[in-house]
Design a protein that fits this description.
- This protein is an all-alpha fold and about 190 residues long.
- Helices cover about 80% and strands about 0% of the residues.
- The chain has one domain: Tetracycline Repressor, domain 2.
Length: about 190
């Protein structure tokens, strides 16, 4: 049981580090120090930084996918669903000016091992697939290509708004960007 708890705590600490400082700042030494254990104990659970990064992105994506599925059970109103979706990204900014974990990792794409890149790509795919379902609720006659394009544009706009707001430490920029997307008809 203690081993599972340690493994989970490693992921929690790693998530906070990456969301605040990016994948390149991920350090086994920092994680071990925060846990009060030796570095090799972290390596016992995750032999390489890539293993840890992939596990982190996998857990984040799986958790996010589950959350999005639960959201679909709460409403069939695309505006209500997208309000909740946007609130998830906004909440990260309110939590220490953090980024979406996979969004910040995607910005470091070239520095990521293949296993991490793959998991980050899966996060994008999960979000676009979910947004396509919401777009279909908003525009039932839209074909698959149109739904995919709009979903991708929505995802890029929300992730981008988060990045800009984080860079300026101004959540108002996030809110204004989302409002602009709504006024332009991109987001219901």
């Amino acid at each position: 049981m203690a081993s599972t708890d340690t493994k989970q705590r490693i992921l929690e600490i790693a998530r906070g580090l990456v969301q605040a400082q990016g994948y390149n700042a991920l350090s086994f030494r920092d994680i071990a120090a925060r846990l009060g254990i030796k570095g090799p104990a972290v390596h016992h659970h995750y032999p390489t930084k890539g293993d840890l990064g992939a596990a982190l992105a996998r857990e984040y994506t799986d958790s996010g996918a589950e959350m999005l599925e639960q959201l679909l059970k709460t409403s069939e109103d695309p505006t209500v669903l997208l309000d909740a979706y946007v609130a998830i990204f906004r909440a990260a900014l309110l939590n220490g000016n953090r980024m979406c974990l996979c969004g910040i990792m995607a910005a470091e794409q070239e520095a990521l091992p293949e296993a991490v890149r793959s998991e980050v790509g899966r996060f994008t795919d999960v979000n676009i697939a979910w947004l396509m379902r919401v777009v279909e609720m908003d525009d039932p006659l839209a074909g698959v290509q149109k739904r995919r394009q709009r979903a991708l544009a929505m995802f890029a706009a929300i992730e981008g708004a988060q990045l800009v707001a984080r860079g300026r430490r101004d959540i108002g920029l996030f809110d204004n960007a989302v409002m602009g997307c709504r006024q332009a008809g991109l987001i219901p």
